[in-house]
Design brief:
Elements: E1 48-50, H1 52-60, E2 66-71, H2 76-92, E3 97-102, H3 107-113, E4 120-124, E5 133-136, H4 141-150
Parallel strand pairs: 1-3, 2-3
Antiparallel strand pairs: 2-4, 4-5
Pfam family, one: Thioredoxin
Keywords: Chloroplast, Disulfide bond, Electron transport, Oxidoreductase, Plastid, Redox-active center, Transit peptide, Transport
Subcellular location: Plastid, Chloroplast
Length: about 150
Amino acid sequence: MSICLSNPSKYLSSKRRVSVKKPLSSPVLNSPNLSRRNSIIAKGSQIEKITSKELETVISNRTTPVLIDFFATWCGPCVLLAQELQKVAEEQGDKLKIVKVDVDENPDICSTLNISGLPTLIFIPKDADKHAYRTEGLLPAHKITEVLGKL
C-alpha cells in the first residue's frame, strides 16, 4: 500500500474545506524573547522546509517515520512548536525525518488535506500499512515523542 497525496483521505480529520487566514497581529511573535529570523528552522538543523510538490516524494521514498509540520511564519504557536521539533530532531536523529510545509507558500496542500488550524502535525509511520496520526495545536517535545512511539 503506498501513500499518495492524490488520495489524501488517510490524512483528513474531516470533509470540511476551510482556508487558513493570516491574523492582523500576533502578540507571541511581537514578544522581545522571540526572533522571527531563525525561529522556524534553526541553522544547521536536520529539519527541512519543503514544498507541497516535494512532499509526495518524501512520503513515497521514506525509510523512517515522517513528521510533517504545516506552519506559518506569522503563527505564534508554530514558532513555539519549531523549538519543540528541534528538541525531537536532536533526540531522534536519523530515526525520524521532520519536514515543514509553509501554508502561505503552499495553499494547495491546505485545501487537499483540509489544514484548518495551525500548527498541524501529521505523523506518517514507516510502514505504509499503518495509519497516519494527525493533530492540531502546540505539543511539547515529550508528547511528540510519545506519539512517535505509537507509530
